[in-house]
Here is the input.
Amino acid sequence: MGPGYAMNNLTIQNLSKTYFDPYAGSNVTAVHDISLKVAQGEFISIVGPSGCGKTTLLNMIAGFLPISGGSITIDDKPIKGPGPDRGVVFQTFALFPWKTVIDNVGFGPRMRGLPKKECDQIALEFLSLVGLEHVAEKYPNELSGGMQQRVGVVRALANNPDVLLMDEPFASVDAQTRMTLQEELTKIWQERRPTILFITHDVAESVFLADRVVVLSKGRVLEDMPVHLQRPRIWENLMEDGTFKALSSQVLSKVRSA
Amino acid sequence: MMILLKVWSFYLRIAVKFPVLKTIVPFIPLIIAWSLVTELQVFPRAFLPGPMDVISAFGTLTYKGVLTQYLEDSVVRLAVGAAVGVALGIPLGILVGLSDRVRQWVWPILLFFQAIGDIAWLPILLVWFGFSLTTITLVIVYTVLFPIVLNTSLGVRSVSVDLHRAALSLGASKLRVVWEVVLPGALPNIMTGLRNGLGYGWRALIATEIIVGTSGIGFMMFDARRAGSVVEILLGMVVLGTLWYVVDSWVLAPIERATGKRWGLVTQ
Here is the structure.
């Protein structure tokens, strides 16, 4: 077990977020009261309709937004602003357009102060996870959307974060590519077992990927259900699987009632 | 008609091999028209010399070393002024772009001083520094500074918040984010600022040389007017246009091709 695999938990307790809406002229509560424990190596999906507070939740865990109440701790240490212990994968990919693929993936290690040669080595190793060593010297705008997001995922992983936060990462690629990316993600997770918190509004995606699906509604946890499905997960097998279908419709009815 | 098409396709093929043709050929009809007007003596020769007169004046003045010396003076002044303007403008632009507090304080002042055009500073600069290089340099710096500050701050603010967040969550310090994210992200706008700044600076330089005038292309043109040598005035104008084209295609455009365009930040 490497240094990134020490026992640690992401613990969220009575978290709330209120902000002032200058247009409405009043306070808006995006997150009311969320408590959640994420175990080391767990893959958890957070699903809910738009406006349910799921992105706000992720932004607070990432340290992008200050919290209004409650606490977020990793290993019992409260988080303080953004940091390399929490890797983020963005819906917009957020690759640096002026850096080649290899420099994007090696960015985290370089910020840790590792020499360039070592960063390149780490980057290539992680690019090989998604079969992209051959585009290492290209710029992001020369890649397809699916390839860009593969780079986005391994860039976050290359830093060995305690938690990987993913904010609707596959929402902007086409349906076929999305299925491939989802299968690849579960494969990577099985190999390396990072803790993943995956935000989505896609019910099938949330069930397909995770061990546990949390349904959010109006800034509260509506449902927290385990997913007992075989791995590796492959769409061809699961699409007709009874358990998968039952779970999906169960989650869907919760999301729609939300 | 067929012949015209053939000539055109021949030109297109040869222009691919020798890109310099794409620069020269568009000027040919212009120069022919100019020659015709002068050959037909529409205006007296002393008021409007022809292209050949300008070329021979170019030869004589280059031979005497006057033109090269003046050209060097002007270009060095612009380069020094631009360098100082860039060195001050980019950091200031980044500060204004990043910090709301700085912007609140600096913005009204920037707009106020931007309105006082470069030449409007000349009277007081002449009182303070006389007909000196300092005066010329200050005018250039002043002219170059504003487009760079305004465009840099615009570029800084156009960098997506997700890129800031990505860098921070990968462990970059705030200072590192400026270097790794803000600066390259603002580069296309900085280039626009530089392009405008140099363009305005070049014009301000000529105007300043006419007034402060001891040497330089602007001085040459104004001096030629006193001597009644229209051909040298025209030569000065041709030099100005050519020089700008050279700066654009040899300095600015290659930087833009290697950065913003390569990264997909700006489309053709």
User: Anything to note?
Assistant: The beta strands of chain A are 10-21, 26-38, 43-47, 69-74, 77-78, 86-89, 163-167, 195-200, 212-217, 220-226.
